[in-house]
Design goal:
This protein is about 80% helix and about 0% strand. It contains 5 helices and no strands.
């Protein structure tokens, strides 16, 4: 798996900040010894500018990764903490570079204790996150790689779940279509049956009317026959 671009840039930026801290300490030593610091100051200014550009780039990349959900919220928060720590160190490096009258005793104290009691201290010796304490760059990279692999595994699991849900949705949709077809067939059958029932009802009505008319005709014919018989039957 290819290394994460943001983490790779963070590592290189971290190294620049370390180099800056060392050059600022060297410049301060040269000042105490009365040596020229022109070249060191030029190099420090260049490194400070490079550090600022890289931290700004890290900020933009992190914002894009979080807003597009390329990383989890937890990983975004972790990287934001790393970036905030880097920005704090950058500010301290700038302050230390601008203060050219830093007392040697204060610098030595800060190097030994990692804190500042008077004036600016070594800006790189600040509290390190618990999750990276005692780890080298290789260990930190391995830790970051494990985190990325865990995120990838989580994304794979989520993708599998979404695929199953999509398949279930398609099956439910197909079943609903079949049910709709059955309902349409039943509606057509009921409509056809209703039409046939109405037709048969009309026929029965017509037959009933015709039957009544025929009955009356039969009665009239019988009466006429009776009259004729009486008329022609000889009387005694």
């Amino acid at each position: 798996m290819a290394p994460d671009p943001w983490l790779s840039m963070y590592d290189s930026t971290y190294l620049i900040a370390q180099e800056l801290a060392e050059k600022i300490q060297e410049r301060n030593r040269c000042q105490r010894n009365g040596e020229s610091t022109t070249k060191l100051s030029v190099s420090i200014r260049s490194l400070l500018q490079n550090l600022k550009e890289k931290t700004d780039r890290l900020k933009d990349l992190l914002f894009r990764s979080v807003s597009t959900r390329q990383i989890t919220q937890h990983e975004g928060d972790r990287r934001q903490n790393l970036l905030d720590d880097l920005l704090t160190r950058h500010g301290r490096l700038q302050a230390s570079f601008r203060n050219e009258n830093t007392e040697p005793d204060v610098i030595r104290s800060s190097l030994m204790t990692g804190g500042v009691k008077q004036g600016p201290a070594n800006p790189w010796l600040v509290e390190e996150p618990e999750e990276t304490k005692g780890l080298g760059f290789a260990d930190i990279q391995q830790q970051q790689q494990r985190i990325i692999e865990e995120q990838d595994a989580g994304l794979d699991a989520l993708s599998s779940i979404l695929s199953r849900q999509k398949q279930m949705g398609q099956e439910i949709g197909n079943e609903l279509e079949e049910q709709n077809e059955i309902i349409d067939d039943l509606a057509n059958l009921v409509e056809n049956t209703d039409d046939k029932l109405r037709t048969q009802t009309r026929r029965v009505t017509m037959v009933s009317k015709k039957s009544t008319s025929c009955g009356m005709l039969v009665v009239i014919m019988l009466l006429l026959i009776a009259i004729v018989v009486v008329a022609v039957w000889p009387t005694k």
